[in-house]
Specification:
This protein has 445 residues and is mainly α. The chain is built from 18 helices and eleven strands. The protein folds into four domains: 46 residues; 95 residues, Tyrosine recombinase, N-terminal domain (DNA polymerase, domain 1); 163 residues, hpI Integrase, Chain A (Orthogonal Bundle); 89 residues, no CATH class. It is elongated, with a radius of gyration of 39 Å.
Amino acid sequence: MQKGSISKRKDGRFMGRFRSVVDNRVICVYAKNKYDCAVKLKEAMEKDKEDNYGFVVEDNNFTLGQWLKYWYERYEKPRLKPSTALGKLHIIEAINKTGYGSKKIANIGEKDVHILLDKTDSINQKERIHALLINAFDIALKSGYVRINPFAIVNKTTHKKKAQENTDALTKEQEQKLFDYLKATRSKYYNFIFFLRWTGLRLGEALIIEWSDIDLNGGYISVNKALDAYGNISTPKSEKGIRKVPIMNALRPVLEDMYKLNHTGRVFGWITRNGFAPAFRTACHNSGIGHQRPHNLRHTFGTRLYEAGVDLKVIQSVLGHADFSTTVNTYVNTDNTFMLNELAKANWHTFLKLTHICQSIWHIVSTHIFTFWAVRISPTAYFTPKIASIIDFFDTQAIYRKSRINGLRHKYGYNKQKLTKIGVLTILFHDKNHKDTTLTHQDIV
């Protein structure tokens, strides 16, 4: 049973305290005498048992259904958009239907996790239930209601998605097949699919776009609202979702043609989410590109921007992602052709770099060979025109040293001397009569 205590403070007042069965925090009440304090303590404890969400909890023994309801109302609902919160509530209802809603959370173990998840056939629903229970039990663990989080022990990758559930971007070939099919069948969704492909908008954002949001002269589309799965109008997914998307050149003529027919209200007001999604899947299947989701068009838009060399931070801004890692890890997929081209570029740059390194090594080696021969072995070596041409081949620069030239001019009577430098030693001279000249180490250093 829940217990409380009463003690007398130094100021003469009495303090009653107990630990809440809801969030495990200590709650205190105060009174001038012990009797009043006991009354207040009892009232506070009774009130605490009522969690304000319609159920009574005894001795911290939450059932799974009770805890999920309390967790949802206290921690999730206040911070989430209405549509997102409603989605969480539907998941909680699905969990309660499995029969585990009446089981005490303190008694749920790893074995129960597998049994609970196996009661759901849908792979996506399993992942949603698993993720929700991990978060809910994290709070229960921090509050001291459970000793471990059994849902965190089970790896999410245990439940793998089916192969046909593709989340990648469409390749250019798949794009071509899809739009060729839509054009050949005169699909009423052609313009809408084309719009999704060239804007990267989420389905809910595209459905609610109005002509007042499109500035054909300015060249951008203002995204400031979204239509959720239940038909409610709300703000975009995050603050970053409120953005301006540029009108791409490929999309402009399509919008201009549509504008001539109607330019008031919603651009695609006649399309519903429930009607479009199955029609899109059918079109993808009939065009031979396999199972695809409308959201894959958003991935495709981001990937094509990346392949065109657009900076990732710009892509993040256009797509409206709050987290940069989402752009990099989820929305940018490259096909084999693009990767091969990029690798070819990398190989070519590597080849050029290696060539430059080899030239530098050859230059250093040849310089040291000639320098060692000219200075160490034969400090008075005689340079023939043939050797001079070889040295000139590996030469890096021709320089003039005024002070040095003046001294040599007086010594040898030169009118002009062109000194060829290799490394740090000047080792070649030509006189005014183009005769070969013998120089000593002292003359050239």
